[in-house]
Amino acid sequence: QAQLVESGGGLVQAGGSLRLSCAASGRTFSIRGMGWFRQAPGKEREFVAAVSWSGGTTHYADSVKGRFTISRVNAKNTVYLQMNSLKPEDTAVYYCAAGGLGAVPTTWSDCDYWGQGTQVTVSS
């Protein structure tokens, strides 16, 4: 079993930055790929970024490439999403998710565990 708790969401002006954190419990965190997904009102949930268990491989949605950075510190059981140059279209609930053992989750179905989400609102 694993539990994921997101934090760091909030309200920010366009062009600003936020850093989301996801604290994970469970002994298998360090061998799971981790991902961030988001869902805006009235829209389908979409992939944002993912990182391999070692941190050596990352994937990003085209819409966030060059602006967002995913990273992890296994010693702290924590994964981060640094979001820069935020745009109003980044407004959504952001979810942290843990992939299957050894997998890098780029789709919701790749994930075994999910957090409750944290709201990010970007004003224009």
| Whole-angstrom Rg | 13 Å
SSE succession: EEEEEEEEEEE
* Cα distance spanning the termini: 40 Å
What is the percent of helical residues?
under 10%
What general form does the structure show?
globular
Strand percentage, roughly? Answer: over 45%
pLDDT averaged residue by residue: 94
Number of DSSP-assigned strands: 11
SS-based structural class? mainly beta
What this model shows, in words?
The chain is mainly beta. The protein has strands spanning 3-7, 10-13, 18-25, 32-39, 46-51, 58-60, 68-73, 78-83, 92-101, 111-114, 118-123. The strands form 2 sheets. Strands 2, 4, 5, 6, 9, 10 and 11 form a 7-stranded mixed sheet that branches. A 4-stranded antiparallel sheet has the order 1-3-8-7, with no helix packed on it. Strand 4 and strand 5 (46-51) form a beta hairpin. The chain starts with a strand and ends with a strand. The mean pLDDT is 94.
Please write out the topology:
Elements: E1 3-7, E2 10-13, E3 18-25, E4 32-39, E5 46-51, E6 58-60, E7 68-73, E8 78-83, E9 92-101, E10 111-114, E11 118-123
Parallel strand pairs: 2-11
Antiparallel strand pairs: 1-3, 3-8, 4-5, 4-9, 5-6, 7-8, 9-10, 9-11
